[in-house]
Amino acid sequence: MTRKSGDASRSTIRDVAARAGVSASTVSRVLGGVYPVSAATRGRVMRAVRDLDYVADARAKAIAGVGTPTLAFVLEDITGPSFAHMAHGVEREATRLGHLCLVCSTEGDVRHELEFVEMMRAQRAAAVILVGGTADTPEYRERTHRMADSLASAGSRLVLCGRPPLDPGAPVTVIEYDNEGGAYTLVAHVLAQGHRRVLFLGGRADHTTALGRERGYLAAHRARGLTPDPSLLLHGDFTRDAGHRLMQQALKDGLEFTAVVAATDMVAAGALTALHEAGLTVPGDVSLAGYDDIPFARDLHPALTTVHVPYEELGRLAVRTALERTPGAADEHLLLGTHVVVRDSVGPPPSRSPR
Amino acid sequence: MTRKSGDASRSTIRDVAARAGVSASTVSRVLGGVYPVSAATRGRVMRAVRDLDYVADARAKAIAGVGTPTLAFVLEDITGPSFAHMAHGVEREATRLGHLCLVCSTEGDVRHELEFVEMMRAQRAAAVILVGGTADTPEYRERTHRMADSLASAGSRLVLCGRPPLDPGAPVTVIEYDNEGGAYTLVAHVLAQGHRRVLFLGGRADHTTALGRERGYLAAHRARGLTPDPSLLLHGDFTRDAGHRLMQQALKDGLEFTAVVAATDMVAAGALTALHEAGLTVPGDVSLAGYDDIPFARDLHPALTTVHVPYEELGRLAVRTALERTPGAADEHLLLGTHVVVRDSVGPPPSRSPR
DNA sequence: AACGCCGTAGCAACCGGTTCCCATCACGGA
DNA sequence: TCCGTGATGGGAACCGGTTGCTACGGCGTT
To answer: Which Gene Ontology terms cover its molecular function (chains A, B) (predicted)?
Structure first.
């Protein structure tokens, strides 16, 4: 095999042209493939290309209007399993449609988010996908509306994926999944087993994801004519550590409950461990349910009853909807369904008095 | 607030110049910040910039040599927890150093990998980070060596992260972690409990990650003067489903063992569920250990004894080493240490005869 | 044999920026 | 009053590509 020794400086189209004894335009046309070029010339050019190991500069092509388009993906932390699945969906669909995929994690910092969106505008990204719930404040809507306008005026498109929609009029594509409905069905299932004091181990108090699931929790109670004890709503964040800590605290405080519905499977995992540590059995002493249906849920012991969310599909849809959109069309707003996955962690309450 | 109505076509530096009544060079200088410009002119320019919501095209800047550099990250599937943590480390360090971060998942397809690396060469990425073990064949070394040369000649740099090193001479940075050492210590710990028939639930048979861990398994046996029964080495892939299936099969086949060492925590999770389903207790009947120390490991029941791998640090180091490298310097080859995390899933073998 | 057409390749303009180099202007000192 | 000088801003070349338009040469046709 011929191995080029470190040429160090990348060669330009003019270098190739010189070596092939043709003009730069001819090289461009040979590489472009459509314009008619004689076999002899094509051969000489291809030869030179191979000799120099030449690849056209994608940035230069982009500025001339013929580049590989790019698409950006902004999330808080790719480490969370549900985010990772969305990222996977986004990435797969992006490459399927011939786009490159930029990633940025904001660590929850709004300034990072703004900076990154600005960079994406500069990059002329075809679409910017903002992922994950957040606090739905007027400030959020204002700021995000501005980002949407700003991107739109640059020919790009903002996509909100699992993130609260904006006021109508914002040039934005929204893909959501049904937090409230899933939680409603799940909690209804728990209540149907006979539980009456169900602890809700929530995520961040103002976070739309947690809030939606909390609404479902409340609605399921109301549908049965029940009003849940407000002291059964606990908040933290979405990590397994939060679930663990919250559960320990709840047990220590002597809170009375026979079932726990966690805001996410991660929280449920931590809570489960805390229950085990306290010597309680699941679902014998306490029933437990999660949300997200991450792959691990079935390996908890007992296997976790939870709500399945089509995260990967969500990601795929986000990019497809954004990229296949016809510029003049109305703004899309999709809502994906979820469904409960019944496993072994929810059973009837113990016959003795609840702890 | 003033909201620009959909300008549709992004404005250029000349538009700004025209509006401010100056030349394009002046706008460039105002935005650049260093060149002396009078306060009045600067004001007019900034005004025009704001009015038009102008952002300089990053691609055009890049081609002129003053762009935000980019860095690429290629992995098989971001869905795996350990990959996700590496990705997180890479992304954080990249943005810390002011780089953009492109991602691509290959789904294990070599052609995708090649295509993507070629695209990254076209993008003039500062570095391309290839992540995760693979089959270490001559073909692999050949192909990867070519990629390294090709990238090097384009001024870019290939980084192998947790992937087998190449023959000396390839312009490549290698960051590995100690698969063999971690497995050695882990298996030594298991053997010290008195186990003599330890099942190794491996990943893909030819995969360097699995192979390294397998070597540690064997070495730990040899160090005690033991020769493990070859039929105790099982192969599949790295998913929880594989672990589940393999374990079921082993039990059905009546394989005799008192402990299981899984190639990854994911595999261990599936295996654990299969053990539970078979009515076996862990570690009472069978001990179980994993590898990777993913966050979930401590929420398995019993909490999983495993080997901690500093995945995020690995990712961070990969980008730092690649980007802070002085062009002429020798090729780096880093080997990160691992350590065993003892939890509750490994205990002494049952006193009765092994199953 | 002359004409015209078609296939092929080159020139130059352009994409959207940056920056070198030079012209201009105002100002202070001699 | 004249000149040197430093502060500013413009013109044009350049980064590395693409592409519209044009020119040239060889071929078939009448």
So the answer is: DNA binding
